[in-house]
Amino acid sequence: MRAVPVQRRSLPRPRTGRHAATGGERAGRRLYVIDGIRLVAALMVAVHHYAGTHRVNQPGNVVWGRPVSEIMPNVFHVASYGWIGVEIFFVISGFVICMSCWGRGPRQFFVSRVIRLYPAYWFAIVFTTAVLVAVPGVWERLRLREILLNLTMLQSGSAVPNVDGVYWTLWSELRFYLLFMVVVAMGLTYRRVVVFCCVWGAAAMLAPVSDLRLMELVANPEGAWYFIAGLALYLMHRFGQDLLLWGILGMAWLMGQMELGERIDTVEHVSGWRGATLIFTVFLLFMVAVALGYTDRVRGKWLVTAGALTYPLYLVHYTAGTAAISRLRDQMDARLLVAVVIAGFLILSWLIHRFVERPVSLKLKNGLDTSFARLRNAAN
Question: Keywords for this entry (predicted)?
Answer without folding.
Answer: Membrane, Transmembrane, Transmembrane helix
